[in-house]
Amino acid sequence: xxxxxxxxxxxxxxxxxxxxxxxxxxxxxxxxxxxxxxxxxxxxxxxxxxxxxxxxxxxxxxxxxxxxxxxxxxxxxxxxxxxxxxxxxxxxxxxxxxxxxxxxxxxxxxxxxxxxxxxxxxxxxxxxxxxxxxxxxxxxxxxxxxxxxxxxxxxxxxxxxxxxxxxxxxxxxxxxxxxxxxxxxxxxxxxxxxxxxxxxxxxxxxxxxxxxxxxxxxxxxxxxxxxxxxxxxxxxxxxxxxxxxxxxxxxxxxxxxxxxxxxxxxxxx
Amino acid sequence: xxxxxxxxxxxxxxxxxxxxxxxxxxxxxxxxxxxxxxxxxxxxxxxxxxxxxxxxxxxxxxxxxxxxxxxxxxxxxxxxxxxxxxxxxxxxxxxxxxxxxxxxxxxxxxxxxxxxxxxxxxxxxxxxxxxxxxxxxxxxxxxxxxxxxxxxxxxxxxxxxxxxxxxxxxxxxxxxxxxxxxxxxxxxxxxxxxxxxxxxxxxxxxxxxxxxxxxxx
Lengths: 269, 217
Description:
The complex is a heterodimer.
Chain A: E1 3-12, E2 15-25, E3 31-34, H1 41-49, E4 56-60, E5 66-69, H2 81-92, H3 99-105, H4 120-132, E6 138-142, H5 150-166, E7 168-172, E8 185-190, E9 193-196, E10 205-211, H6 216-222, E11 228-232, E12 235-241, H7 245-254, E13 258-265
Parallel strand pairs in A: 3-7, 3-8, 5-6, 6-7
Antiparallel strand pairs in A: 1-2, 1-4, 8-9, 10-12, 10-13, 11-12
Chain B: H1 2-21, H2 25-40, H3 50-69, H4 74-83, H5 87-116, H6 123-147, H7 155-170, H8 178-186, H9 192-213
Helix pairs in contact in B: 1-5, 2-3, 2-5, 3-5, 3-6, 3-7, 3-8, 5-6, 5-9, 6-8, 6-9
């Protein structure tokens, strides 16, 4: 058993976002997709969840109900949270009561208030409850930690460890938390296809702050080994595995950048 | 069995969402106003006044179908489709809720004059009136599904295309199902074929909607 994506492609108008994704999702092996904005993570997740059709390729073995948390919170859910969860459980075709999960996540809002009137964090908890609490055979989560406070984030860590052992799990995440799930396979999407993100949890990195002329996006394409990047006011910060640090500095200097700071970075939280 | 139960679960959810949005009130009240004007004074004996109410139920049902199809935000739609295990149940439920809404409007149009006016409404006349209204309401539902999400994403276009189609098709007495149903009603016929055709159009519109549902996102 398991969900198989084979040669999945997705184009919007003429732009190809996914260019042949092969992926297997099964219990015990949570798949985590990391990487920058606009690389196609959310598109891949929507296709895997069945909320978007692939332009080519196939998704097989998808169970009859998928727990899905989209990247953007639904804008206007007028229904009270309690009624929303009740309806969602019925749509999943289950007798599970997703409200039980809300206590674990530390839900602090009014269950009888419209979902749209809850705080961002509480809306996220409602969505997580419907995705994780309905016994779905596949759970797809797009940035599930966004909007959660520290306690709720830790609770979600525990819930996902539990869920990953019994259900297929696909998570897009940039916090590094999902990569710490036991047995997690971590990928990045590069030019529309999956690439192994080789960093193991606990890998040591060098963080380099640069001031560079020209377009940072173009620069990032030629700098070697960049795992993560942040754009600041007049500066570009990149994170590379320690063994790639010298190569990165040489390449950056060759492109006319000045080095503002170099520091060592331990395991990501 | 569970297939049907889960489709009905989506339909219940959509109904609750539409009810809370209150957007269904506008087509309902607009149609109520039309009925009040048509049947308020001395409308005359049936089936004459029904010609106007059958024509009025056509755009009202279309409007209601647009409300039902557009009720969910796009992101929530993705969650609903994933939870329901694919777009088929969601499309079927949308169709069902929109069609039932249209049929409620049709029932009101048939029953209000029968209950409030002083003219006799023998069963054969009631049947002809009901069939004509079902034909017009179902065609309106089909039109509404075709000009709403996921086929037409923007409400401005939905309105323009919907109004244009209603204006062109409602005034052709030879054109099935709306024109010919009204024509059959006033000339004493039984618009059975038109009613069946209307329901067929709803199913066809549902198929178009289903084919578009997850391809546009």
